[in-house]
Each structure stands twice: as structure tokens, then as C-alpha cells.
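Worked problem 6 (solution included).
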Amino acid sequence: MKKEISSITTGKEILEIGRENELSYKYGTDENNGGMRSESQNLLGKTDIENYKWRYDILAAEMYFIMGNFKFRLGDLSDAEKEYSAALKFNTSFSEAYHNRGNIKSTLLDYKGAIEDYTTAIAFDSKNADSHINRGNANYRLKRYKDALEDYKNAACITPYNPLIFFNAGIVELALEDYREASMDFTLTIAYKFKLPISLNNRGAAKVLSGQKESGMKDFRKAARLGDAMAKKNLLNNSIPKTE
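Solution. The predicted structure is:
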């Protein structure tokens, strides 16, 4: 007999009821037919069974995903990762689950694993700018600077007015000693007033390192007035300026 889902049924019980109903339909224990389905009914019901299983799998994936989000907010990263992995067993094309699991791996410093998850997330949803940005961040951590810049470029094609993209690109360009491009990207973040003191300090460093000392010192002074400690040190230090 098929069970109904009540308003107080827990998530786990929903999964159990769904699976029990599916098996009841599939193997012919429906009371509407005297407790037994005929072979022809089983054959005719094949498409319905497959559709039911698909709906069940999507529901199960969503529930594990929600639990993963809940545990992530609680700071339980290990269990959150398990929940996202469980969601992906039911829905292997769940881009958000790959993305969120990638975030956990990145937080746990598993940058290679994070890149794998972000890459899969992008394969299923190439328009998610955050997946491109976060993969870029992971590539940066592994010193794959050119790959990181390519990720930020792709993200900028999706969300061209996101200052975080230009800020992160500027950081990578500093690492590549491409001070001209870094200065240009930090100029954009300054225009958006995004992380303003840090952006000013970093642009100042890029200018000093490219031979524009006086202009760079002006940026340090502006950043220092906004309370940036690194900029204050750079004003007192005649050696290579520090970035943030």
C-alpha cells in the first residue's frame, strides 16, 4: 500500500516513503490490483517508474544539498562536504553542489580538489561567474597565475561590473610583475570604492615598482589617511613596497 506524506514527516522519512512507494509500484504490490500487478501492467508502467525515480532522485539531491548548506553555516565543513557528495550521487549534474563542495575544499586548502569541482560546476553551468572566480582563486593559490587570469577574464564576461574580479586580477598581476596591468585593475576597483584602502595601497605599490614613485606615494598617503596599516609602513619604508 502506498504511504502518504504528512505535514510533519521528516526529510529522512520522505526519502524512505518515496523509495517504498517506488518499489511497491515497480514490483507489483499495489492493493488496487489485489496486491499483484500483471506483467503487461509492469511493462506499460516502465516509463512511469523511470519518471518517478527521476523525481525522487531530484528531491533527494535537493534535500542533501539543503543539509549541506545548513551544516556549512554551522561551520561543520566535514559533514557539509559529505552532504554535498550525497546530493551528487542522486543528481550528477547538480552544478550548485559541485560549486559548494569546491568552496569547502578550497577552505580546507585542497585547491586541486576545489578546481576539479569548480570545473565540473562550470561544465554544467558556464554562466555562474562565482565558479569562475573561485576557480581563479584556487589557481592563484597553486601559483597557476595565467590560468587564474583566464578564469577572471571569463567571469568578467558574465558580470563585467563586479569589482572583485578586477581586484583579484590585480593581485595575480602583481605576482606576475605585470605592474601596468595591476595598476589599471586596481584603478577600476578604486572607482567602485571596493576595498578602497587596500586597493589604493596595492596600486601605489604597482606604481612604485613600475618606476612611478611619486604617484605611488600619493596612493600610499591616501590609503594611510583611510587607516591602512600597510600603506603607513610603505610611507616609512624606502625598500620594496608591500601589498595586501
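Discussion: The two ends are 64 Å apart (CA to CA).
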